[in-house]
Amino acid sequence: MPFANTEIPGRFQTLLAERGIRMTGQRRAILNVIETAKKHLDAGQILRRARKLDASIDRSTVYRTLGLLKRHGLIDELDLMHLEGEAHYYERKPDRGHIHLACLRCGKIIEFDSDLFESLKAQMEKECGYRIAVARLEVGGYCSKCRT
Amino acid sequence: MPFANTEIPGRFQTLLAERGIRMTGQRRAILNVIETAKKHLDAGQILRRARKLDASIDRSTVYRTLGLLKRHGLIDELDLMHLEGEAHYYERKPDRGHIHLACLRCGKIIEFDSDLFESLKAQMEKECGYRIAVARLEVGGYCSKCRT
DNA sequence: TTAAGTGCAAATATTTTGCTGTCAC
DNA sequence: GTGACAGCAAAATATTTGCACTTAA
Known about the structure:
By secondary structure, chain A is of the alpha+beta class. Helices cover about 40% and strands about 20% of the residues of chain A. The first copy, chain A, has helices spanning about 10-20, 25-35, 45-55, 60-70, 115-130; strands at about 40, 75-80, 90, 100-105, 110, 130-140.
């Protein structure tokens, strides 16, 4: 069964509470937006959606919360080949790092998982002597519909 | 013989001339900077170096020239895990896409090449039906000196 | 000659920061 | 009660654009 979404809503709250991070209404709203997102969102989109839950939320609170989640390794930051503008996109950290393929024409994003990618990471750790913390593979190309 | 730099200086000029792109003193300076760079530079660094060759060069000319080179597939745009700030870094497009590993502590960047990476790209093209134009793998971690 | 390129200034976009008041614990 | 967090406004950073002048071909 590929892609069973076993995400428990509220998981972020639990994880942050375990680490003694203070929970506020604003954070709850932002976490909720990210946890329930069906696509990758940038900071501006997260702000707009979070404001529907709590109209007073400020831009800087979104950035500060994203920073917090990044520091705690709960989300990943993506560029998605900068399809539109230069903003970053965010997603819940997947159990196993996956690859993003973006269609440069229609903008469709698909996610891809591969043992080869895991092997490659293992090879890099071995041959370069690096302990890998994040490995971001982002691919731009043309999807089956768009390539001519 | 790994890493034989067979780059012919002036290659960009030739390639652009072949495509009927107009050559100007400013462009020559900027191309020169990128072609002779020994490390990845961001737009600001390219501007500063180009100005040593032609003091009148404007920031916007650098960005416009980088756009031109990107459109013509002569350079690659990298993030290098945003080690400092959010700027992009540029390098001559390598014959074979390589991987950048950045040390999150000391900032050292190493480049890595792997058949496994080529196989992975082939696998993605096959299984996803995408024709891949760019594949950017950027890794953050801790180099042998910095990991504790 | 003339379309493409340039500098300049201003606009845009994204993210960060200082400060002061507020709230979770 | 107090230290962490919030909103607000302003700054910092990165990049893009409109326009009038200049220049390569």
